[in-house]
Amino acid sequence: MHVTRSRWLQLGLGIVCMVMIANLQYGWTLFVLPIDQAHKWGRPAIQVAFTVFVLCETWLLPIEGWLIDRLGVRPMVFAGGALIGASWMADAYAESLTVLYVAAAIGGVGAGAIYGATVGNALKWFPDRRGLAAGLTAGGFGAGSALTIVPIANWIATDGYQSAFLAFGAAQGLVVVLVSNLLRDAPRPPKQAAATGDPTDMTPLQVLRTPAFYLLYVMFVIVGAGGLMATAQLAVVANDFGVAKTPVTVAFLTMPALTFALSIDRVLNGVTRPFFGWVSDRIGREITMFIAFMLEGLGILALVVYARDPVLFVVLSGLVFFAWGEIYSLFPATSADLFGRTHATTNYGMLYTAKGTAALLVPLGSLLREATGDWSVVFYVASAMNIVAAVLAVAVLLPLRRRMQDHFSRFGGASTITAFEDVV
Questions:
Q1: DSSP class of 126
Q2: Nearest-CA neighbor of 114 among 80, 82, 158, 84?
Q3: How far apart are CA 266 and CA 248, in angstroms?
Q4: CA nearest 61: which of 98, 125, 112?
Q5: One fold for both 3-180 and 192-422?
Q6: 165, 28 contact by CB (below 8 A)
Q7: 192-422 CATH
Q8: Rounded to an integer, what distance in angstroms lies between the CA atom of residue 8 and that of residue 129?
């Protein structure tokens, strides 16, 4: 077997690509203040670029997934690498908000293509370990920026943000372009696989006619929005509760409580994805969802109760981050379980748009805070959203999956899906 046909190598190459796009989302915050100082555009206007990036990265993924399933992973990742490089290099020369927004859109398209291709390919190469494979790949996106956040910050401080955009944009894009040439598509599954109960040929149109897709979508949105409501407001909450600058010592490390909490964010946000993916491969997706979502809900409740204690603020914020990031391994694995791997990239691309929908709901947290004058209501709502999703996982999704599997085993696969009543 040629070395590039090794599925573990393909998984590793996909992770490298995900690490290279992590800064487009998680490193952006380092550039906002320097851009504002240089151009005086105002932080809210500059942050619109981030919203543009997220929407293009998520809402265009179904189209990109369709192209990936047809053209293959290599050309799409190659194009994605070129786009993310061009995006940050354009940011370096942006002299207007319009150019900044266009660059963000270009980066979103490129990041979405890379994200969809690498996660989809991981699901196809590892039908027996979908949770672990998706978790490791998504973990590269969640924790990848941890390696470069300090170098980028130092580069900005010494040489300016334009130089940092140019250097890291070119480097990230080049690495993805080079790695793309080593990527290989997973072998197509045998047609007999449908007889085992795995709907290997469910097309996107068939998926859109199943209640399982809409249930997963709703769960993705409420868990994603609930977690974002809590984590996005962490800095504001820490300042309001007076613990942001309080020194905290954990595991022989001492730093301000808020800095400590944000530092462990990227690590736990990356570790949780392969961990819960691995767990789900062993005890089942729905049971794992119940455990993770319930842990998230209870963690958010505990955080609002004990956040005025600096040590507990750090510990509980870490728990919240750990119990939230796993959605990016559990949902793609569940999508492939239910809808098969032939069109896994397109099908998960449709589901992944829930991330964009969830992001649009996050401002509701600030509105609730302004209306009530208290963060408690925001955290209670966020907690309730996660607990509801946990209950849906075992009370609705698990029985629905079993009915679908029974349907496939009795009627011979996804080609018989014609209406909602076929699987309910």
A1: -
A2: 80
A3: 19
A4: 112
A5: yes
A6: no
A7: 1.20.1250.20
A8: 11
Six token digits for residue 182: 């080593």
Give this prediction's pTM: 0.87
Q: Show the tokens assigned to 200.
A: 């290997």
CA distance 159 to 37: 15
| Per-residue tokens: 350 | 């449709």
List alpha helices for 160-249, DSSP H.
161-180, 204-207, 211-232, 234-240
| CA separation for the pair 26, 423 (Å, rounded) | 40
End-to-end CA distance of the chain: 44
- The amino acid at residue 150 is V
Q: In CATH, what number does 3-180 get?
A: 1.20.1250.20
**Angle, in degrees to the nearest 10, between helices 327-339 and 97-125:** 50
pLDDT in tens, 85-107: 999 999 999 999 999 999 999 99
CB 250 within 8 A of CB 311: yes
Q: How big, in percent rounded to 5, are the helix, strand and coil portions of the chain? A: 80, 0, 15
Residue 247: beta bridge partners? 256
HSE, side-chain direction, 13 A CA sphere, residue 291: 15
Q: Look at residue 158 and give its three-state secondary structure.
A: helix
143 pLDDT band, cuts 50/70/90, is confident
Tokens of 112: 């979405």
| Residue spans per domain, the chain | 3-180, 192-422
